[in-house]
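Example (one chain per record):
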Amino acid sequence: MPELPEVETTTKGLRKTIIGLIIKDVWTDLSTKDKRQQYAIANPKFFKIFKKEVLNKKILSVERRAKNILINISGEKTILVHMKMTGHLMYGEYKKDPINRFVHFTITFNNKEKLYFSDARKFGKITLIDTKIAHETKHLNNIGPEPLEKQFTLEKFKERLNKKPNGKIKTVLIDQSIIAGIGNIYSDEILWKAGVHPEKKVSNIKEKELKLIFKTIKETLKKGINFGGDSMSDYRNIYGLPGKFQLHHEAYRRTGEKCRKSGCKGIILRKIINGRSAHFCSVHQV
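Predicted structure:
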């Protein structure tokens, strides 16, 4: 699933390409009666409403909240996109990559270009909400603070973790109600760099370790953005191109390989923790 760096990379790309354009048409081949998709474009009845609301509207701005992309349009409406496991947005003449062939939604603009949503597993969510109350809707109202914002201080970090003192640090880091945007990939990389075992209980983490995890969160997420996201799986940017963070993994999906920490003789192990995979060093993560 795309995490904060991938969604931020996409958001930045959209800001460069679609702001100021006018929506002239929308299309989807998705169709479901699943009640969980009642207010998403996959529901044919909702798609009719969606289409009527967005046609001839202007793209005003694009922002990110956690793993959600918010495309604000005229008429005080916001198109919310959550890419889920395999979704990604592409604009214009994107690269013809096999990963990019699962297009299930398009927006056509007044410049004749299109915004495409490719999603192999069709788990992605696209809906329409009122801009004024966007952050109060069920889609966004239970999300923790953004870890790259200045307001996210060490004290705020400790305050958030202490909401689940008995939780395992890996599980707590990827809990979107605690901190926004961190998932499996970046939590593994953060804890490897901080030297903290993913099963360590929050209440047992020492002050020195907390400071290191906090510092490493910001460094690792910024690194992910600088490398254009992680394309170990399906993620592609708006030009259909892969990111490069996967070339710099120290833990994630390196099972059985030697730890690359200087002087460490450990190997990378994989373990399922509360239903999610964790990759970590057998020696230096304690």
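Caption: The mean pLDDT is 97.
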